[in-house]
Amino acid sequence: MRMTFRWFGAGNDTISLAQIKQIPGVEGIVWSLHDMPAGEEWPMDRIIALRDEVLAAGFHIDVVESVNVHEDIKLGLPSRDRYIENYKRTIEKLAQVGVKVICYNFMPVFDWLRTELHKEMADGSTALFYEKSRIDNLDPMELVRQINANSELTMPGWEPERLAHLTSLFEAYRGVTEEHLWDNVKYFLDEIIPVAARCGIKMAIHPDDPPWPIFGLPRIMTGQASFRRFLALHDSPYNGITLCSGSLGANPDNDIIAMIHEFADRIPFAHIRNVNVYENGDFIETSHRTQDGTVDIAGIVQAYHDTGFTGYARPDHGRHLWGEVCRPGYGLYDRALGIMYLWGLWDAAVRTASLASGKEAAQ
Ligand code: DNO
Ligand code: MN
What is the ipTM for the molecules in this complex? Predict the structure, then answer.
């Protein structure tokens, strides 16, 4: 397990590379050019500047999260070819600076969606929260109307740029079914996987978060069956997944340990975090500790150990602790605690296995 930490860039993150350096065992920074609009080719000078900054701080830059996919690609519009060409050029440029894994997602319109960014927990910390009935009963167009009338009102992830296009995006997705999305993701893979393979870059799709359709928009990367179907579209080590335990764990039917065993050789990147799912389907992002949520983080780390996982891992969203002011879900403290928990589990698994094999050898 090669530990990494997501960083949003100087001036765009409250955390410094020097602070990350003090977290034990972090070798790499998971990075992106966060201000690049989806669909545009990344400029080489900016890639190089970021590489130099991260390398100078003593980290590798092997993992990029994310190179975002333009909506026209997900919609299957004729204009997609232009954006796919740009995507290929970006893959080639990232390969030139030594990138090994690109994380991306195929979620229409929204990336992760929550109803509250700072839900207070019993211990006074705050965390990202999803109130299922609120989303289920929400007419998104009605919300857009309300937001336009009252700019104070918004939803996490509904950035002003996105909001401006929301009405037309919802229009564009009318009639787009899950099967259309499957066709469109296949078209995308047919184009990019050969380029990624030639460049030695593993593409790693992130599951949908939450892993079910929202606002009538289709979502397809939701669980074990969909990953199986996805991986079969291109049976290549360069077509892989970012196994995110928190996103998948929002649906308690998802057996993440079984997925790690089934897809072991196709997981170049692991996001490891916990969520607590309530009876009514609401969920909150808790500490990484198994006992604090409904995802068996201890079992997951054991499964990675047992399948000989040598890929990259990172803690995912954390709580906001000790008054830290930070990007929602991306503070320093809880993710650092998360890493130490993951290392504790990992080191114990390694030790237990080596003691067991020592005993075997002695027999
Ligand atoms: C949620 C996060 C995501 C992720 C993107 C990847 O679990 O890891 O926001 O960064 O979806 O494209
Ligand atoms: Mn994730």
Answer: 0.96
